[in-house]
UniProtKB/TrEMBL annotation:
SUPFAM superfamilies: NAD(P)-binding Rossmann-fold domains (SSF51735). It comes from the Bacteria. Belongs to the short-chain dehydrogenases/reductases (SDR) family. This is SDR family oxidoreductase. Keywords: NADP, Oxidoreductase. Residues 7-181 form the Ketoreductase domain. InterPro entries: KR_dom, NAD(P)-bd_dom_sf, Sc_DH/Rdtase_CS, SDR_fam, Sec_Metab_Biosynth_SDR. It holds the Pfam family adh_short_C2.
Amino acid sequence: MTQLEGKITLITGGTAGIGFATAQRMAAEGATVYLTGRSADKAEAAAALIGGDVHGIAADISSLDDLDRVYGVIRERSSRLDIVVANAGGGDLLGIGDVTEVVYDATFDVNVKGTFFTVQKALPLLGDGAAIIIVSSISGITAAPGMSVYGATKAAVRHLARSWALELAPRDIRVAALCPGPVDTPGMEKHLREAAAHGDVVGPTTPLGRRADADEIAEGALFLATATFLSGSDLILDGAAIA
């Protein structure tokens, strides 16, 4: 029997990178998967590429109306949720003097507000024993030039995960933060381009001498979904970068 047979899963930001790899991995383990992306075409294409019982829904998670629509679809089709992977997020490599109000608001709206209300609005559908996985980053633990706003948002969602683990423990709902280091994703490629534009050379940045593959981070998400006594903790997958 596969590990997630019969489980209903939502993965936000599931059209590329860690989110897509996690959707693939959980679908392979037997889950019904709902994934979101800002573009209907991309969300539907990602679901079709994975195949099986996978459904793509267009949504901007910083929009509460969009989140209501996502949960309306899940309620109508599946009636419940067992696993939420709050993965959608992003940010720019910008020094403090280059951060505009627009950039600041957009980053916090998606990474913090979006994560907060993704989880809040999932609660009526989550049964006892459900799992919530918050995708943070080692940027929420360690500091780096140009990462102050992004890192602050990722530190914030780590704190949300710890607080929610306590609040939801009476319902046996587990909450944990997944904290990847550098991963080969479209977001990382964007980061590398921004670094190059500033004259910086960014190497693998881990003692293992490479960046992670998104599939390796998806394995961490699967572990958190099935580790029944793990809650309120960080799972750090950083290639020993902060060991």
